[in-house]
Design brief:
By secondary structure, this protein is α+β, with helices and mostly antiparallel strands. It has three domains: about 500 residues, no CATH class; about 100 residues, no CATH class; about 130 residues, Jelly Rolls (Sandwich). It is built from 27 helices and 17 strands. The strands form four sheets. The chain has a five-stranded mixed sheet with strand order 2-1-3-5-4, with helices on one face. Strands 6-9-14-11-12 form a five-stranded antiparallel sheet, with no helix packed on it. A hairpin with a 7-residue loop joins β15 and β16. α1 packs across α2, α2 runs antiparallel to α9 and α6 packs across α8. The longest helix is centred in the first third of the chain and has 30 residues. It starts with 6 loop residues before the first helix and ends with a strand. About 50% of the residues are buried. Keywords: Membrane, Transmembrane, Transmembrane helix.
């Protein structure tokens, strides 16, 4: 093991330190607009989120019309902002010291992704991260307003064409591109961790503003330790950072800052009855955050705006401050919507898109699981660890998760009077109201919207997203409750906080490792994932002819590998069968949906699914030149469970039959035989039959396994069918499917393993 970490770890760490340092100094400017008594805590807790929102909006405006990486406007503009902010400081040493401390806190808050970079040299790109990585790289040399003509879209550009055509926001991508441009970093893959890590940090620190009074008796060390807890949980902030939801991570940070700021502002307006001019001035930082939210991640904006409106109504009713609060809301929403104008249509589009979104499998949690995820004690979707309300979960995990959640609820019940008091005062009112709004929306999607899947209650994906968004606002209630015990427990409270943070820190590292190991089998022999792709790029540039497109041979189920290869070969022409990747093929010219390799062209493929025999192995990839004719491309595999792999082998569990559709490429007309081989494992007595179907619908049947009980075996045969005419292979059984295990409820009769097909002389 390399005890000094990896290059991407240090690049990301320094990028995050730079981002937080810059954001803190620039953000301190905005605190001056707030009432005098709020300025000190606002500088301390909110300046990082103010600065991050400022950088995001700056990047959005500049990046819309200019390439962020090729214009002096970026370094000159940001330098001017930084110098002006520092010039306005009364105590520059204190400001610089504050920025350094915030940067150090960011190391703890970014633990969930930094620890993976340290050990494995990369983060999981097999998700939506590909979109944002491509956006940021593309924005280095292109302006977003430069619309790509449909007939000129290439695979690399498709991620940008996607967002341009659908009208989706790219605020997080602009921010990442800005940091990449300022630091002159070649690959946005190196910058992505710093953007999500910085976002988590500024959101956690912003939680301190509405509870500044409760935090004041604590030493700064313990304050920062307590505020880092959401970053060491399993809630929406950490999940979005590690699952490719970068825009959500940045959006939750800015949106969280908005509600954490507005609560104390509502309390101040209601009780102090300030002048109208003072209210208008105090609304400026809130306008900044609302505009930043809409530019970055507009989906939760309607829920947050509803919470702000309801909170204002409640405070106006309680304190008879109708005129003052009406003025505040008119200025906040009026000026914000005036700035974003056409972006309101994007909000509506994005919200409609999100509310109808589903994933490839249901989120099959109980209602307890959704609420647990909201408070950060329940894992997220897909393969995220510690999803203790899944039907197939280990009983011990369920009892452990339920016990943790019960303890949390018990603690909140004990401190309910304090939380109620802070809500009634107004400081925590917007956070509490938005939690209620999200929970009501969860119930609507659970009980009044039909499930698109055979399992799961209601529209489960939207339920998950809503509790994901609620995480920062639920956690501020937890942190407030913990901070409030300081007056009773004294230093015992400090020691308890430190112990809890250390435990959560170690748990976060363990959970991050579990989360990453679920994709590490895809790169089984490397401890530096980024270096794999850099070596692949270096090999292609050195050995592949520039006049022929590089063919990407990635059969169905491997599209994320292919996307990352496209990202790292952005300046080379590439060809492939894109028909299994809706993120790309929908935006390509129709004639480019399915492309065939050219003889003599380079082929990039997975090592266990080779089109070419000779070449360079860069695990798990193989790179070589296509010097012979004849290869079968697998178009689709249906009627079975999904593809599984351990890096060396791949297999499919089959209930009854498996249907493999083929596309024969470059076979000679005089090649008359086809060779098929595979391994299989039967479960119980059964007969397997192989059906080979040609392009003229002729079928040849071969009985493989007759009357045998459970066993593992292999088949290899040469069949008198010209490979150029073979279109489909079906293997079916007459056996009975049974559950795979007590923990795996899938029913299967047999397993197909390492299927291979090709021509034979």
């Amino acid at each position: 093991m390399n005890y000094f970490g990896t290059e991407i770890f240090w690049t990301a760490l320094l990028s995050q330190v730079f981002t937080l340092f810059l954001s803190t100094i620039i953000g301190r400017l905005w605190a001056v607009a707030l009432p005098y008594k709020m300025q000190a805590p606002a500088r301390f807790y909110l300046s990082p989120v103010f600065g991050l929102a400022t950088l995001t909006i700056f990047a959005c405006f500049v990046g819309r019309f200019l390439p962020l990486g090729n214009t002096p406007v970026v370094p000159v503009g940001i330098s001017a902002l930084f110098i002006w902010a520092l010039y306005r400081e009364q105590n520059r040493y204190s400001a610089l010291q504050h920025a350094v401390v915030v940067s150090l806190v960011g190391v703890i808050c970014g633990t969930s992704i930094l620890c993976i970079l340290y050990k494995y040299g990369g983060f999981n790109p097999h998700n939506d991260a590909y979109f944002y990585l491509t956006h940021a790289n593309w924005l280095q040399s292109n302006a977003f307003a430069k619309t790509i003509p449909p007939e000129q879209v290439i695979p690399y550009d498709s991620a940008v064409a996607n967002f341009q055509s659908l009208g989706l926001r790219m605020g997080g991508s602009f921010l990442m591109a800005l940091i990449q441009a300022l630091l002159r970093i070649q690959w946005s893959y190196d910058v992505y961790p710093s953007v999500v890590g910085s976002s988590i940090t500024v959101c956690c620190l912003a939680m301190g503003f509405p509870i500044a009074t409760a935090l004041r008796p604590m030493r700064r060390f313990y304050r920062f330790a307590l505020l880092s807890l959401p970053a060491l949980s399993l809630g929406g902030l950490v999940l979005s950072a590690n699952s490719g939801f970068m825009s959500q991570c940045v959006g939750l940070a800015v949106g969280g800052g908005l509600l954490f700021l507005v609560g104390p502002l509502l309390a101040w307006i209601s009780k102090e009855n300030p002048k109208g001019r003072t209210i208008v001035r105090a609304s400026l930082p809130a306008i900044l955050l609302l505009v930043g939210l809409i530019y970055t991640y507009p989906e939760p904006a309607p829920f947050l705006c509803l919470a702000l409106g309801l909170s204002s109504l409640i405070m106006a009713y309680r304190f008879k401050a109708w005129k003052k609060l009406f003025l505040f809301n008119i200025v906040l929403f009026g000026v914000s919507f005036l700035i974003v104008n056409s972006e309101i249509l994007r909000v509506i589009t994005a919200l409609g898109f999100e509310s109808g979104a589903v994933v490839g499998s249901p989120v099959d949690w109980t209602l307890l699981g959704y609420i647990g995820h909201m408070f950060g004690v329940h894992g997220g979707v897909w393969s995220d660890p510690f999803q203790w309300t899944l039907p197939m979960t280990i009983r011990l995990h369920f009892y452990l998760g339920a016990s943790l959640f019960a303890l949390l609820l018990l603690f909140l019940a004990v401190r309910a009077n304090y939380i109620k008091l802070e809500i009634l005062k107004g400081t925590l009112l917007p956070a509490a109201v938005v939690c209620v709004v999200f929970l009501l929306a969860v119930l609507i999607y659970r009980y009044f919207v039909a499930s698109p899947f055979p399992v799961g209650k209601g529209q489960s994906w939207s339920q998950f997203k809503l509790t994901d968004w609620a995480h920062p606002f639920a956690m501020v209630l937890v942190i407030a409750a913990i901070a409030s015990t300081r007056r009773y427990l004294g230093k015992l409270n400090d020691y308890g906080i430190l112990s809890l943070v250390i435990l959560c820190f170690l748990t976060t590292i363990h959970m991050s490792k579990l989360r990453f190991l679920q994709i590490h089998y895809m790169y089984p022999k490397t401890r530096n994932i980024e270096q794999v792709y850099l070596d692949l790029r270096k090999t292609v540039l050195a050995q592949c002819p520039a006049d022929l497109p590089v063919y990407l041979n990635f059969p169905m189920g491997n599209l994320k590998y292919r996307q990352m290869v496209v990202y790292y070969l952005y300046d080379r022409k590439v060809a492939s069968d894109w028909s299994d990747d809706p993120y790309i093929y929908q935006f390509l010219p129709r004639q480019n949906y399915v492309q065939e390799p050219a003889l003599g062209a380079c082929v990039v493929e997975l090592k266990h699914n080779r089109m070419v025999e000779q070449g360079v192995l860069i695990d798990p990839f193989h790179i070589g030149k296509l010097e012979r004719l004849g290869y079968f491309q697998i178009i689709s595999v249906t009627d079975s469970y999904g593809r599984e792999s351990d890096g060396e082998n791949e297999w499919y569990w089959v209930k009854n039959k498996i249907n493999i559709e083929l596309n024969p490429l470059l076979f000679a007309k005089d090649q008359l035989k086809t060779k098929i081989s595979f391994e299989y494992q039967t479960r119980g007595e059964q007969q397997l039959t192989l059906h080979l179907i040609t392009d003229d619908n002729k079928t040849e049947d071969i009985i493989i396994n007759q009357g045998n009980t459970s066993r593992e075996a292999s088949f290899e045969g040469v069949i008198d069918i010209p490979p150029a005419s073979l279109r489909q292979v079906i293997i079916e059984t007459d056996g009975k499917a049974t559950p795979l295990s007590a923990k795996d409820s899938r029913e299967a009769a047999w397993m197909l393993k390492n299927f291979k097909i090709g021509g034979s002389n």
